[in-house]
Design brief:
Blueprint: H1 2-27, H2 36-55, H3 64-85, H4 88-91, H5 93-98, H6 104-131, H7 138-166, H8 170-184, H9 196-201, H10 205-219, H11 225-249, H12 253-256
Helix pairs in contact: 1-6, 2-3, 3-6, 3-7, 3-8, 3-10, 6-7, 7-10, 7-11, 10-11
Length: 257
């Protein structure tokens, strides 16, 4: 038990150090620095909002701007992080061969780096909620849901990091899947109940996280106990599966990079 605790402490400590170093390195020498994290989702947000107002003036979604913003930010966090995890083993090949470290830290640090970035984006949600009088208490619900989304994404990142070490074209496959998810997942639209798109999203885990994250902002109510329980189960099971897959294969990584 003590060895497990020491291993977890070592992974967490190293992960934070790597995440902070990579976060600073990415922004070093940049004129806009951390603002670059906000420009892409903001540009897409205003573009979709403009197109929706021009082409689809009628909608039954209350507080649509925050509906759209929450959907975009959670989707971008998920897609970009899983995509980045695919190459995390290949990019750290020399590191893996020369230094004996817990390899889990490479994946966890990448997740933490994305979490650092997303904390800046949460400010946009806060401002939008105030502007629309949507209730800033929704931020606390969002943070709880975002934590579960991070755990879920960490589990998938372990799986995709393992697959990425074996499959060179996986990044290209994920780009296509990410584009499909963008249009399938209710980010800028709301599928009609019992429609084909609605039934497809019943099997889309990302849909449940985004829906729960919006609940307080859009409808002024807490997510149901059933939906939160489902998110906890999805996150926990995915993390356990991801850790199992990663640990079962990590001894082969040095040979593949």
């Amino acid at each position: 038990m003590k060895e497990i605790k020491n291993k977890i402490s070592e992974v967490i400590g190293l992960s934070f150090s790597l995440a902070k170093a990579n976060f600073k390195l990415r922004n070093e020498g940049s004129y806009l620095g951390i603002l670059w994290y906000l420009l892409n989702p903001l540009a897409l947000f205003f573009m979709i909002l403009f197109i929706r107002n021009e082409a689809f003036a009628t909608t039954n979604i209350p507080n649509y701007p925050i509906y759209l913003l929450v959907g975009l930010l959670m989707h971008n966090f998920f897609i970009q992080l899983v995509g980045a995890s695919i190459n995390v083993i290949q990019l750290n090949g020399n590191f893996i061969k020369s230094i004996k470290i817990p390899l889990e830290a490479l994946v966890v640090s990448r997740v933490l780096q994305s979490v650092f970035s997303h904390l800046l984006e949460i400010i946009l949600i806060f401002i939008c909620a105030i502007y629309l009088n949507a209730g800033i208490e929704g931020i606390f619900i969002y943070l709880a849901v975002f934590f579960l989304l991070s755990v879920f994404t960490l589990g998938l990142s372990f799986i995709f990091a393992t697959l990425g070490a074996h499959i060179n074209d996986l990044s290209n496959v994920w780009i296509v899947l990410g584009q499909l998810l963008f249009f399938i997942t209710p980010i800028f639209h709301a599928p009609k109940v019992d429609s084909l798109l609605y039934n497809v999203n019943l099997w889309n885990p990302l849909n449940y996280f985004i829906t729960a994250g919006r609940e307080m902002f859009i409808y002024g109510r807490f997510p149901s106990a059933e939906s939160m329980t489902l998110l906890v189960l999805i996150s926990t099971i995915t993390l356990l599966i991801g850790l199992w897959v990663f640990n079962k294969n990590k001894h082969t990584f040095a040979e593949l990079v």
